[in-house]
């Protein structure tokens, strides 16, 4: 490993270009799997580079393969590109006007990966192997990583990667500081919808009806008790009630049904199985006790983001040699957020890292979090992000040389 003074890559000269790309991405934020403007910008930025570039068939993905000048294995680097369906408050000169907002930092992920591609391209003759750059749509609930895997991103270089890495920025954590860990890094998650069917009726005579609202209230409280009493504290779950909607025929009529939508986060397959098996029985029992019918539907769950012990330790060592122990820290506990990079890590050993990107003028206390319309990111971290991805890929390939 080398010290910061002898680091292999320097993004100083391209930082302005990376910021410009990020801000253009931010202003034209798009949602889901179909990101034509974002895809076009990525293709524009990659034009002129000696890479093998393909686009997705069923989604607006971009896969770029950089072939090194020396033989060797394959490493994959990934950046997601989609935004959230938020209307961004005015204020930033490059604020989005599309009805979508990069409130999770994916515009930085895309720009940072573009930077890594340019840095590695500049040293391609000495690169022992190949790098796959995975520009992915649809991370925010659309399982875009799984779609790209189905379309062959892991075989894009002709053989599967020996390792895969990604960086996720965080607008609450201190700027320019990296965090990662071995084992579970982020939670697995999926949605659950509960529909409680009542009968409707006159609110003056509730004894003649089955009112789903108090049943729903009882179920919501029981769910919270279930998490604290049925799920081991050493392997936790978080069940968040996201919405409660009634089906009401008239303002002066009891609802005919209530629909509860919940989001479940777990850190292991065992706890996921426990919740999926036991929670429906609890909900059904409460509804049956009140004479109501209930239907429970589970959506697809993102897997737990599981960092490989060797690859995470390797990435952390590289980052600590570049930035010291203060600049790259071991995360003591998993985060309960989710990431569909987990689909890649199910098939390729690798690691997800977090990079603090809170602006210097935003105090840590009360800083707006990600997935909020108030989220703001310091794109000054893009140079460090690009250098880190390039350095990790370079050194990982050299381990096999």
Fold blueprint:
Blueprint lengths: L14 H13 L8 H11 L5 E4 L6 E6 L2 E11 L25 H16 L6 E9 L7 H7 L12 E8 L7 E3 L2 E4 L1 E10 L14 H19 L6 E11 L9 E10 L2 H21 L3 E6 L6 E3 L1 H19 E3 L11 H6 L2 E7 L25 H18 L2
Describe this structure in words.
This protein has helices at residues 15-27, 36-46, 106-121, 144-150, 212-230, 269-289, 309-327, 342-347, 382-399, and strands at 52-55, 62-67, 70-80, 128-136, 163-170, 178-180, 183-186, 188-197, 237-247, 257-266, 293-298, 305-307, 328-330, 350-356. Helix 3 (106-121) packs across helix 9 (382-399), helix 5 (212-230) runs antiparallel to helix 6 (269-289) and helix 7 packs across helix 9. It folds into 2 domains: 4-186 and 304-399, 3-Layer(aba) Sandwich (Aminopeptidase), CATH 3.40.630; 188-298, Alpha-Beta Plaits, CATH 3.30.70. Helix content is 32%, strand content 24%. With 401 residues, the protein is of the alpha/beta class.
What proportion of the residues form beta strands (DSSP E)? 15-25%
Parts with pLDDT < 50 across at least 5 consecutive residues = 1-5
Instruction: Count the beta strands.
Output: 14
**Class by SSE composition:** alpha/beta
Cα Rg: 23 Å
Largest sheet: 8 strands, mixed
Query: Can you say what the CATH homologous superfamily of the largest domain is?
Result: Zn peptidases
Mean pLDDT rating: 95
What is the name of the CATH class of the largest domain? Alpha Beta
Give a quick precis of the structure:
This protein is of the alpha/beta class and 401 residues long. The protein contains nine helices and 14 strands.
């Amino acid at each position: 490993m080398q010290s910061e003074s002898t680091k292999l890559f320097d993004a100083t000269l391209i930082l302005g270009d990376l910021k410009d790309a990020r801000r253009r991405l931010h202003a034209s934020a798009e949602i889901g799997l179909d990101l034509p403007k974002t895809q076009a910008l990525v293709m524009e930025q990659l034009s002129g580079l000696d890479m093998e570039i393909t686009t997705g068939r069923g989604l607006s993905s971009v896969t770029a393969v950089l072939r090194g000048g020396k033989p060797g294995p394959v490493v994959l680097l990934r950046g997601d590109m989609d935004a959230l369906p938020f209307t961004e408050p005015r204020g930033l000169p490059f604020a989005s006007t599309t009805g979508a907002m990069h409130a999770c930092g994916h515009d930085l992920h895309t720009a940072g990966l573009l930077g890594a591609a340019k840095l590695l391209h500049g040293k391609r003759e000495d690169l022992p192997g190949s790098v796959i750059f995975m520009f992915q749509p649809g991370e925010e609930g659309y399982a875009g990583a799984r779609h790209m895997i189905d379309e062959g991103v892991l075989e894009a270089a002709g053989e599967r990667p020996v390792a895969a890495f990604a960086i996720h920025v965080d607008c609450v954590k201190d700027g320019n500081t990296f965090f990662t860990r071995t084992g579970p890094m982020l939670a697995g998650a999926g949605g659950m919808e509960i529909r409680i069917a009542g009968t409707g009726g006159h609110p003056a005579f509730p004894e003649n009806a089955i009112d789903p609202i108090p049943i729903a209230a009882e179920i919501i409280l029981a769910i919270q008790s279930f998490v604290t009493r049925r799920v081991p504290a050493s392997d936790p779950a978080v069940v968040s009630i996201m919405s409660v909607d009634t089906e009401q025929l008239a303002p002066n009529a009891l609802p005919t049904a209530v629909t509860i939508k919940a989001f479940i986060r777990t850190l292991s397959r065992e706890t996921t199985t426990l919740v999926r098996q036991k929670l429906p029985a609890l909900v059904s029992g409460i509804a049956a006790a009140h004479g109501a019918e209930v239907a429970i539907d589970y959506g697809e769950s993102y897997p737990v983001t599981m960092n490989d012990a060797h690859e995470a330790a390797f990435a952390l060592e590289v980052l600590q040699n570049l930035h010291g122990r203060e600049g790259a820290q071991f995360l003591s506990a998993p985060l309960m957020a989710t990431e569909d990079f987990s689909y890649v890590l199910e098939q390729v050993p690798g690691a997800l890292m977090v990079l603090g990107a809170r602006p210097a003028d935003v105090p840590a206390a009360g800083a707006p979090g990600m997935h909020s319309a108030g989220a703001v990111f310091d794109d000054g971290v893009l140079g460090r992000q690009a250098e880190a991805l390039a350095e990790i890929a370079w050194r990982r390939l050299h381990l096999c040389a």
